[in-house]
Design a protein that fits this description.
single chain; alpha/beta; Rossmann fold; 5-stranded parallel sheet; 6 helices; 42% helix; 15% strand
Amino acid sequence: MKILIAEDSPTVRRVVAARLAADGYAVIEAADGEEALALAQSEQPDLLILDKVMPKLDGFEVVRALREDPRTRAMPIVMLTDRTGEDDVLGGLQLGVEEYMPKGTARVRSWASPNTWPVCPACPSPAAAASAPSCWPSRLRRLAICVAASASGSRS
């Protein structure tokens, strides 16, 4: 699974990338919104983890552009950001991001076993959710919480 991390803070980006790489994910990194948009279109990652406030293009501008492009319209996006105001959260969700995760607020949970993963209605069991590449609700929730927990110690 290939994941693009778009985050302007090198510290947060490195922490999240290291955590994901240690879990076996292929990681691509972008330092600004313009680079994130270009990489999302060219690399077609399985997931985009996106900060809201970045140079060149902000996260919402990136989401709008991706949702308008038929090639990237269905790309799952997790916003991982310090912007936690109601307008920010609702704005992200209205644009169609799958998760809006404030940095530093996620509880650390143990995800060592697929049996602890949340289950979506489409999957018959946690083990099925763990191995179902199309089970985005379960996989995104697990990944978003893990990523938010990793980033909580490295806020920017």
